[in-house]
Structures
1.
Amino acid sequence: MSGRAESDTVPGTADPETAAAPETAAEHDTAAEQDGDAEDHHRQDARRARWTAAGAGAALTLAGLAAALLRLARSTPAFVPAAYAGGAAVCAAAAVLGSRGRTRRALWLLIAGVMVMALGDQFD
C-alpha cells in the first residue's frame, strides 16, 4: 500500500464514462433561481435582524426612561435614575445602529445598556 487514494489525481485523466455531463440550459436556470431564492432569503433575514434590533432597542429605551422617571418620583439616590437614563441612552444608540444594519454592535450595546440599568437597580 502506498497510501495514495484510488482516484485519479491528475486533471483531465478521469474516466469519460463517469465524468459529469455538461449542465443543460434548464438545469442552469433552476440553479440561478435557487441562487436568487438564497439571496432573497438572506435579504429577508437581514431585514428581520434590523427590525428586531431596532425594536428591542426602542422598547428597552422606553422601559429605561419610564423606570428613570418612576425612580425620580421616589426618594432614591441620584445614581439610580441616572443609571436608568444612561442605560436607556445606550439602548437608544443600539436602536439607531440596528436600524442601520449594524446588528452585532447593536446587540452588544443592548446588553451593555441593560447591564447599566441593572446596576442602577442594585442601588435602589
Note: Residues 53-122 form one domain.
2.
Amino acid sequence: MSNARKMRDVFAKEKIVVIPGAYDALSALLVQKTGFPAAYLGGFSISASMAGYPDWGFTTMTEMLSVAVNAINVLDVPVLCDIDQGFGALTNFARTIHAYENAGVAAVHFEDQPFPKKCSQQANRAVIPLADAVAKVKVAVETRSNPDFMLIARTDSKGIEGLDGLKRRMGAYLDAGADYCIFCEQQTEEELRAVGEAFPGRVIAFVGDVPENPACCLPVSAYQEMGYKGLVYCALGLSAAYRGMQNSFEHLLRQRHVSSGDLTRNNTSLGEIQSLAKIKQWQELRDRFDML
C-alpha cells in the first residue's frame, strides 16, 4: 500500500486526525512509537533544527526533502510535509509537487504567500492574488500522478483580507481541487468556529504552539465539535526537545556534574534510542549474513 493511500485511510477512519510535529527521522519515529497514525514535518522545525535559521524560506527544496526522505525510509506511518510556498515560481512549485510525491511523501501543504515566505507567527506577511493561488492548486492537481497524494492548501490571508477573505480563499482552493485547507491565524474560539462550521470536515488547524493564545490550546474534542478534520501540532516535538536539552545543558554548566540519578530522571537511555533506531533488526541482518 502506498503511503498516500495510508494517509487517505487515516483520514477516512479517524473522526479527527491528530498529527504531532517532528523535525527529523528520530523524532518522527517517536511519533510513530507513541501510537499516532501519521507524522508531520514542518518548515519551521526543519529550518531551525537542520540549519539554525528562522522560517523565512532560507531552506531549499532539496534540504527539506532530504529530511522527509530520511523519515520515510524508517517509518511505517505516512508523513505530511510542509513545502512552504513551493520554493520559487510556479514551475518550481510543480517540480516540488512531483519530487515530494515520488519520494513517498503522503501529503503536502502549501501556502499562498509569495517567495520568500515568512513564518505564520511573524507580522507583515503578504499573500499572492487569489487567481494566482487558485492556479497553484490546479497545477498541483495536474502534476500529481496518484490521486491519493493529498494536497492541502494553506492560507495566510486573514491578517490582510480578514476572516471573510480567508473563507473566500478556502472555498476557492477547495473548488479548485484541494483535498483540505489549513490555517493558523486563529485568535479566538469564535474565529475557529466560524471557519470550522463554514467547511465542516474539510479544514485542518495548526494548534498547540502558542501558549498565550487559548484558541491554540483547546482539547481535541473541542476542535472536532467545531467541524475540524485534522489538527497539526506543528512545533511540538522541536519545542519539547529544545526545553529538555536546554535544561540538561544548563544543569551540567551549573552543577559541573551529571549524576546517574540525573540521567535516570531527565534523560532516556542510549539503549532506548538504539532500540528506536532499530539496532536489533540491523544486528540480526549482520548475523544472518555473517557481515561486519
Note: The first strand starts at residue 17 and ends at 22.
3.
Amino acid sequence: MNIWTNNLKAVVLTITLLALSGCAAVHTSIAKKDLDVQTKLSTSVFVDPVPPEKRKIYLEVRSAVMEFDRNAFRTALNNQISSSGNGYTFVDSPDDAQYTMSVFVRNLEKASPSAAENYLSSGFQGVTIGSAAAYAGGGGYREAAAGGIIGGLVSTAANAMVKDVTYLLVADIQIKERAKKGVIVRKDSKINTKISDDGASTQTSSEVSNQKEYRTRVVTTANKANLELEEAQPLMFDKTAYAMASFF
C-alpha cells in the first residue's frame, strides 16, 4: 500500500511541476505576442525656422555596430523627413546645407531588462514562480527529487522555446545649424586628461564659428517573445527616424 501511495504522490508531484514549469513560458508567449517598439529622447531639439530655400540637411550616419544597416536607416530617415510636411530635404554636400546632422549609433543589440532600465528609466518585470517542492508535503525524498529533476528539465526546455527578448538601439545625434548673418557663435571647451596615477591635465579652448550645435540621444527598444533582429529593425528604424524628423 505504501508503494502505491508513494508512486501516486510522485505522479501528482510530477504533474504539478510540469504545470508550474510551463507557466512562465505560457505567460511570456501570450503577454509578449505582439511587437512593442518605444522611442524616447534624452532632450528635445528645436532648430530655428528658416525660409523654404534653406531647408536643406546634410546627413552623416556612422556606427560601431556591424549588424546596423546604414542604408536602411538612411531610407527610413529620408522617408520621415520627406513626409513631415515641413519642406526639408537632404543634400549631398555640406556646403549646400543649412543643417548638418551627424548620427552615431552606439548600440543595436539584445538587452536585458536591467539594461533597458538604465537607458529608459523604466523596466520589464519577469514572472516569479514559487518553489514546486511546497506542493509535495509529506512526500518521500526520492519522489520529490525525481519530480524536481523532471520539472527542471521541462522548465529549461519551455524557457528555451519561449524567451522574452528586447532589442535596444542607442543613437547619439549632433545637429549643426548655420547661424543668421551677423551672429557669431563662441564655443568654450574644457578637457580633463589623466597624465598618470599621480595627476591630470586640464585643457581649455575657445573657438568662434557661424554654427550653433544641438546634441541629444535617441533610445529605442523593441520587445516581443522570441524576437529576431530582422523583425525588430524596420520598425525600430522607422520610430527612431520619426523622432529625429521632429527636430525640423
Note: The longest strand covers residues 164-178.
